[in-house]
Every structure is written in structure tokens, then in C-alpha cells.
Amino acid sequence: MSNEIEAIKDPGLPAHVHRRADTDPKAAKKAERQVAILFLLSALGTVTMIGSYIFIPQDIFIFFPVLGNTNAHQLFLGLGMAASLFFIGMGAIHWAKTLMPDEEVVIQRHEFRSPDEDRADFVATAKAGAAAAGLGRRSLIKRSLGLSLGLAGLSPLILLRDLGPLPKDELSKTSWKAGTRLVTDPGDRPIRAEDLEVGAVAQTLPEIAKGGHRALSDIGKDAVLLIRLRPEEFNLDAERLSWTHEGIIAFSKICSHMGCAVALYEQQTKHLLCPCHQSTFDVTRAAKVIFGPAARPLPQLAITVDSEGYLIAKQPFTEPVGPSFWERSS
Amino acid sequence: MTARERIAGSVANYVDERTGAAAWMKKNLNKVFPDHWSFLLGEIALYSFVILLLSGTFLTFWFDPSQREVIYDGGYQPLSGLKMSAAYASTLHISFEVRGGLLMRQIHHWAALIFMAAIVVHLMRVYFTGAFRKPREFNWIIGVGLLTLGIVEGFLGYSLPDDLLSGTGIRIAEAIIQALPLVGSYLAFFAFGGAFPGEAFIPRIYTVHVLLLPGAFLALITVHLMLVWYQKHTQYPGPGRTEKNVVGYPLLPVYMAKAGGFFFIVFGVTAFLGAVASINPIWLYGPYTPGQISAGSQPDWYMGWLDGLVRMAPPLETHAFGHTISWNILIPGLIVPGILFTGMALYPFIESWMTGDKREHHLLDRPRNAPNRTALGVMSLTFMLVALINGGNDIIATTFHLTINQIMWFSRIAIFVLPPLSFVITKRLCLSLQRADRDLVLHGRETGRLVMMPHGEFVEVHEPISPEKAWLLTQHEQNPALALDENDSRGVRRPGALKNKLRARLSKAHAVAVPKVTAEDLKEIEHH
């Protein structure tokens, strides 16, 4: 130990100082009254709460500074409840602090380590128990027990198998096919090139048959963003340029990082920004990542128009949309 | 004997004759608890948990966790006629039609935030005062487990309403699962019952949120408290307080009244917040659909650091042999948090290994007297804080008219630079405080009174401090570093020399201190 050098002495517990209520009956009476008042305030709170529940209609809004327009029912119900609870606590603590004994008590600790005798006995008992079971000698039992316990441990895993289907190629495909019309979301209206002005953005989905149902898991893969620029603003290779139509370019709206909807388009810089983790994609360069944690551009959907002049997909997506996964090859 | 005393007597008799509990009760009702405001932090966590159970049970009476599609026809006009999940519709119903429903929802959410905040601050108290040392290492690990479960439970909880914000959070969780090498897409499909979002996930996490995890909480909290009870509470150093005693107030009646009263105060404050402070107004976000999002999407604060790490990750993915590994998700989402939480859980053992200290400790350290530990704690907090700040980079950018790029680059650099820097600064500060303590004991308190000496010199009058204060400033142990020789007595390198070298260096760093004042120092100064 380091305390070979003489340390300063512990002066011991300071002498107890009595409170006024301990010596003065008047002060004690006063403290008692204060505790009672606190408890009564709590009762008042409960009454406020019950009254608000029954008598204040739910559609009245009143204006309070700081809080703004507030629902009166909710506010007074809550304030009543808060008071009813808070003042019980205040009363109890005031009671404890002013009237209950406040002399500090000293008790002794004991070390947790058991006496050596007990420890030795314990070890001996454990050893004797193990020896009686004979696990050490009967290796056949030991091994077969290990095997059966190990296998039994697998059963929860196998039982959970039916939680869901195997992914197969689900993550890699979307509903887009060659010739699928792009329709507005919401509204489900097909779109002509001239519906989009330069600088405009539209959220679209693949058209479905009348009365058909679109599951959220479809939208989670199919959502496509249309953006119209002036064709000369693009900085694309010939193939990707051929995937656009009159300056309209289409990208998967599902972020290639973690799958959020890439919904923020900045018209001036022609950047798409994902509000989740701020990955930023340059629309003019086929949604190349220019900032943030995303590692891949947003997949581009090749579009053209059909005989009636409506925008359609020229072909399905050429790569999986959305966040990465193990089986993804590029 | 009054009637009341007779009743109390007969109840005690009834219980004792059937359980033999009298001896145990006698001992435990006289249990002594040391008093200090920082010991209330864990209590706040416990009480918030009770509030969560009560308000949560209320919410389950109306909440429908189904993701089945319904058309909303409830009282909130702006969403009238919209397609949404039953989960979202029933949350709207609780908020607008059930009397007290919105209040309970807000109390539940506030209680969850307070629960997590109390756990974190309680953890900081335990860490910085060294309360985790032997024999309390198990309780530290249970505490880290509770913190981890709390984060998961909180996330699952705010994911239940299936609004646009929470659905986005689930989307991110799905992407993390999906990013796991080898098994990711399988696990994601199993968890979601198919492709995201499916209709299975919210009903499933509902069971986990209201049954499985609360059960685990109850079990862990029970063990946590039983250990506190059995091992007796630690106490702050001071006159009359030693490693061998506990100085405080008895359970009955003082502690019972104080602790019971404090529960009502915590509940009252939470109810007040629920009444006046709007939280998670899900009706403003709209129902979840994967194709939409609201700007400024933020998780609750205890998830913010994780989101911040993900945001600052570099855009790294490996594509090889037809497979993809997303480092930009795995590193910030799993690897770094895994290292942090494992390191935190193991810290009591690491410290004991560094110092070679295997003794029991019941007196708390003043943080300045353990500079290395304190500095390490501040370093970890700095790391978390930078991550948390980056988690709010979009909000900070719009509030302070900065660009997101500036904040992101600040965070990317700061996460490496600031933690070590804060380590060095904290350690220096601790040593300076030790030096100040030493001066105080040796030379007394500066009174601010200037006196002119006969020969014209001005001196400030110092007043000696009380013996109690002097004791407080000098009671701590100052243990020397471990002496670990690389070579044994015959000059042969020991096996594991490298490990020993590391241990010796860490031990030395841990033992750095300004020598505390001894009785001899004081005597010497009296002679002057």
C-alpha cells in the first residue's frame, strides 16, 4: 500500500446539527401544515383532472403564450394529472426532510469473500458432485450429451424458418418492364413529355391494371423520379443519353445507400439529396455520387414514348435498385 | 397499544408465521442508504420504467399493430380518406378520439427519452466515480445490457405508429440487416416476412416491444437492484466514511418516503411535459410509404449518434466475386458500435488488469483523482458527441446557415482529432485540480483580504481549511504503477513480455498523480 507515509487523520463524522422542527414544536407544527398543504394541492390536481376529462370538450383550442394554440382538454387533463402526482411527491419528501429522523446511521460492511473453510467446502462439494455424476469417466455420455444439447439448440433456428420467404431474386427485380407506362404518384395518370417543364420533377410509378393493387413493397422498389433538364445540360455517355427522352431523365427514387426516398431536388445545382444521410447525386452525370456515404449512383431507368406519346420504360432496370446486399454483383 | 399498532403487529405475525420473514425483514428494513443527489439518477431511470409500463399498458388498449391497409375516416380532417395502415390509424385514434390518449402517448414518449437520458447520466456517474470496481463488475455489465436494450426498445417503440418518419427509420434498420455479409438478405426477408416493408414487421416488433423486451428489462432490473441491495450502496468519501461502513439514512421511514416521493415527482414532471410539450406529432408526418419522405428526418436522441456515424461514413463498398460488402453501412452501423459497447462492458476488467487492483472498493473516487479513467470517459463522450452533432447535421445546417458539407467534413475530421485532444486536456485538468487540492490543504483558502506587512509588502491572508475538508482532499489512495519486468531474475525474457510491457505502460499512465499532502508535509509547513 502507499500509505506508509502518515496520512492526514480522519476527523470522523461531524456532530449532528438539529433542525428547527426537532427542537421547536411550533416549527414542527408549521412543517406539518406545509406537508398537508402539499397533499391538498395534489387532491386539487386530481379534481382538475377529473373535471377536465368530463367537462372540457375535445375540440376547444385556446391560445397560450409560448405554447401557442393548445387543446384545452389535453392541457388541463395533463396539468391536473401532473399536479396530482407531483405534489404527493413534494409532500412526502418535505415530510421526510422536516419531520422524520434525520440522524445519519452508520452500519458496517462485511467482505463478500466467504471464509476459506466455506470456500474449500464448496469446491469439495462441487468436485464430489461432478465425480458422482461421473462425467469425467463416462466420455460416451459426455459426448452424446454435448451432441444432443448442440442439436437441440438449433431447433429455435429451424422453427423460425417460416418467418418469411427466401429472397430469391426479389431484391434484384422491379415491376418495370419494356413498355410499362410511367404514371404520376399520386393520381395514376400517364405522363406526356410536354407535361413536364424544364426544371420540373415528378414522382412516378409503373402503371397497373384498373382496380389492381399496389403493395407498399412494390412502391419500395418501383418509385422513380423524373427530372427534366435542357438536353445540352447532360454530361452522359451515348448509351445513357439514349436512355433519356427530350431532356427527361429517370432515376430510381430509392437511395442506393439505405433505401430512403431521395426526394430533395435542387434546381440550381441539379443535385438530388437524400434527406436521411445527405448522399448527394449529380443528375447531369447519371446520378453520380458527389457527396455523402452512398457508394453507387442511383440506377437510371431507360425511357422513351409510346405511340400515344406517353412516357414508357424502354427496358427494365439494368441493376438492382435500393441498398446493397451480399448477392449484388456490381 | 393503539388499534393501529395492533393491526400492524398482527399483519407482521401473519406474514412471519407463514414465511419466517421476520429476521430478514428486520435486517432489511433497517438497511442504510447513503444520500447524494447523484444516486437519484438510477432512481429516475427506474421510475421512468414504471411510468413506461403504466402508460404503455394504457396505449395497448387501443393500439392496433396491424399493417393491414385501411381508409382513414377518423376525426383528423387533413388525413381523411387516405390509405394507411391500421397501426397508423389507431395511433391517430388514440391521439384525437380517446380522451387522455394523446396525453398518455406524450407521457410514454417523454418517459422513454427520460429513461434513456437517466440511464446515460447514471452510467456516467458510475463510471467517473469508479463505482463499477470490484465487487460491482456484474452490475456494470447488467447496466450496459440495460442501456443496449433501452436503445433497441426505444427504436422499436417509435417505429410502431407507422408514420412517414418512423417508417423511414425501419427502412434504415432493414438496410443495415440487408448489408450483413452472407446472410443479410435472408435475415431481412425473414424479419419482414418478405420484401420491405411487407405487412409482418410492425406486428412482430409489437410483441417484442410490449412483451419480450419489457420482460427482459424486468428480469435485469430486478437483478440490478438486488445486487445494489445485497452489496450495499457505494458512498462518497468524507469524514467518518470508510471502506468498511455505510453512512446514511435507514430505509424505513426516511428512504421509503424520499424514494417514494421522488417517484411521484418524476411521474408528475413527465405528466407535465406530456401536457405542455408536444412530442412526435405523427399526424403531421402522414402515413408511411416507401416513395416519400419528410426533410429533416431525425431519430430520437439516443439513436442520433448512430445515425451521425452512418452519415459521416466514407462511400466505401467492395464488389468482388459477384458479391457486395457495404463498408459504408457495416463500419458505422455495426462494427464501431460493437467495439464501443464491448469495450464499455469490459472496462472494469480492463482497468483492474491495468492497475493490478483486485481489492473491493466501496468508497467512490473523486474523478480528478483518477485522471486516466476520467480522461478516457471524456474522450468517449466526445466521440459520441461529435457523432450526435453529425446526426443532426441537416438541422444544424438550416439553423445556423451552414452547408451540410461543412458540418460533415468537420465531423469526419473531428471524430478522429477531438477525442484524443479531449483526453489530453482532461488529464491535464485533473492533475491541475489535484495540484489545487494540494495547495488548498497546504496553504489554506484564499480569503481575498490583502494585508500590508510592516516592510511594505502586500500579502493575501490564507485561512486554514477545516479538518473535514482537509480529510476529503487527502483521503484517496495513490497507488504506484505495477512493476513488471520484461526479464526474470536471471535476465531471460519472460513469455508474454510484450503484453507485460503494454500493461506496465498503461499502469504507469494510470498512476500519474500529484502527490497528495501527508501529515508530515503539514508538520513541516507549521515550522515555517
How would you characterize this protein structure?
- The complex is a heterodimer of chains A (330) and B (528).
- By secondary structure, chain A is α+β, with helices and mostly antiparallel strands.
- Among the domains of chain A are: 20-98; 172-313, 3-layer Sandwich (Rieske Iron-sulfur Protein).
- In chain A, 34% of the residues lie in helices and 16% in strands.
- Chain A is built from seven helices and 14 strands.
- Chain A has helices spanning 20-23, 25-55, 72-98, 116-133, 139-159, 216-222, 238-242, and strands spanning 61-64, 68-71, 105-108, 182-184, 201-206, 224-228, 248-252, 264-266, 271-273, 280-282, 288-291, 300-301, 303-305, 311-313.
- In chain A, the strands form four sheets. A five-stranded antiparallel sheet of chain A has the order 4-5-6-7-12. Chain A has a four-stranded antiparallel sheet with strand order 8-9-10-11, with no helix packed on it. In chain A, strands 1-2 form a two-stranded antiparallel sheet.
- In chain A, α2 runs antiparallel to α3 (72-98).
- The model of chain A has no long low-confidence stretch (mean pLDDT 91).
- Chain B has two domains: 34-295, Cytochrome Bc1 Complex, Chain C (Up-down Bundle); 366-478 and 513-528, no CATH class.
- In chain B, 63% of the residues lie in helices and 7% in strands.
- Chain B starts with a helix and ends with a helix.
- The mean pLDDT of chain B is 92.
- The chains are: A alpha+beta (330), B mainly alpha (528).
- Chains A and B meet through α3, β3 and α6 of A and α5, α7, α8, β4 and α10 of B.
pLDDT averaged residue by residue of chain B: 92
Please write the string of helix (H) and strand (E) elements of chain B: HHEHEEHHHHHHEHHHEEHHHHEEHHH
What's the order of the H and E elements of chain A? HHEEHEHHEEHEHEEEEEEEE
Q: So what's the CATH class of the largest domain in chain B?
A: Mainly Alpha
Name the CATH superfamily assignment of the domain at 172-313 in chain A. Rieske [2Fe-2S] iron-sulphur domain
Instruction: Report how far apart the termini of chain B are.
Output: 67 Å
Number of β-strand runs of chain B: 8
Largest interface: A-B, 99 and 123 residues
Strand order of the largest sheet of chain A: 4-5-6-7-12
Rg calc of chain A: 37 Å
Low-confidence stretches of chain A: none
Largest sheet of chain B: 2 strands, antiparallel
Structural class determined from secondary elements of chain B? mainly alpha
Strand order, biggest sheet of chain B? 1-4
Q: Supply the CATH architecture of the largest domain in chain B.
A: Up-down Bundle
Q: Classify the fold: give the CATH topology of the largest domain in chain B.
A: Cytochrome Bc1 Complex, Chain C
What's the CATH H-level superfamily name of the largest domain in chain B? Answer: Cytochrome Bc1 Complex, Chain C
Compute the average pLDDT of chain A.
91
Strand content of chain A: 15-25%
Shape of chain A: extended
Distance between the termini of chain A: 63 Å
